[in-house]
TrEMBL record:
<keyword id="KW-1133">Transmembrane helix</keyword>
<feature type="transmembrane region" description="Helical">
    <location>
        <begin position="172"/>
        <end position="192"/>
    </location>
</feature>
<feature type="transmembrane region" description="Helical">
    <location>
        <begin position="219"/>
        <end position="238"/>
    </location>
</feature>
<keyword id="KW-0812">Transmembrane</keyword>
<protein>
    <submittedName>
        <fullName>Uncharacterized protein</fullName>
    </submittedName>
</protein>
<feature type="transmembrane region" description="Helical">
    <location>
        <begin position="147"/>
        <end position="166"/>
    </location>
</feature>
<keyword id="KW-0472">Membrane</keyword>
Amino acid sequence: MSETPPEATSGYRFASPWDKLDLSRDKLRRQYKHDCADVERNAKGYVIRVKGLHRALQPYQYGLPADQQRARELIAQDGCSWAELFELELLAVSLATEEQFGILTAHWREAAPVGVGRNDLFRVVLAGQQRYFKVLRRERALDRLRLHLGAFTLLLASALFGYFLWTQSASASSLALAGLFGILGSFTSILMRIQDAGQNLNGQTSAGIATLMDGSWSLYLALLSGVLFGILGFYAFAADIGGHFLSWDLIPNIEPKAGTVCPGAGHGGCLPYLAGAADYGKMAVWGFFFGFAEKFIPDVLTKLANARSASRSDAS
């Protein structure tokens, strides 16, 4: 292999965060420390792999002296930012001798076929770094979304459970139970769809992630719809609708029965309620299943799933 490396690797090197003149030095220092902590937390194995690759190349016998010195400085650091980590990986391609170049092609054997040139390997490594960062960004966005939805669900479920324990009305406690397990069902359904959306974003640009985060408000409406569907399911059983499709052993017993004449104590005497302890258990299970109906509410996850289906149809 007689191909020579670029005359200067600065074209491949990521700019240092200290080069951003529009930010104060203190803010740059904080950002740099945050970046290093982020690498330590999320890419510790990545750092070990890249530094180990450089130790296999030492002592350097190829490349520009400035690149050799820069690589030694980065290896000697206790931590590094994302820019420095990616730069160090690119420097390995620049500093490998002709004999050592086989180590690199073996290191990236899945993406770089045997016999690939040095400049071609630069492009392979850059593309791999972009994919890695895109996947990391996607997982962060999904994790934040799960955390926010989980906190909202916990808050609302706690309020419903507190009302369930506090109220003295059998009808109100029955509704609270149906709504409580309805939102738990909708939260489980949304978590499953978020997982599917994350897989669908594997081949998409960052625009898909931005759509998921900017449109996440619609997921809160989907969560709230779980409460509504749980309560609607309770009233469907109270209206004796479920008895026409299901066994009486599967549906909760709700009093008063359909067709009962209201007593003279006003509308409160006709409000339905769960008759026994076993009926509370049955309603909890059904409320959870009713919560899964949230997927019929249009939201950003539905939009992403439809877009993915449309792209597959066009490809076929």
